[in-house]
Amino acid sequence: MEVCIFTEPQQGASYGHQLAQAQATERLGFDGWFRSDHYLRMGAGDPMPGPTDAWTTLAGLARETSRIRLGTLVSSATFRHPGVLAIQVAQVDEMSGGRAELGLGTGWFGAEHAAYGIPFPERRFGMLEEQLAIVTGLWETPAGGHFDFAGDQYSLEHSPGLPKPVQQRMPLIIGGRGPRRTPALAARYATEFNIGFVGEDVIAEKFEGVRRACEAAGRDPATLRTSVALPTVIATDAATYRRRLDAVNADPDTFAGVNIAGRPEQAVEKVLRLRGLGADRVYLQLVDLRDLEHLELVAAEVLPHVR
Question: For residue 202, what pLDDT band results from cuts at 50, 70 and 90?
Answer without folding.
Answer: very high
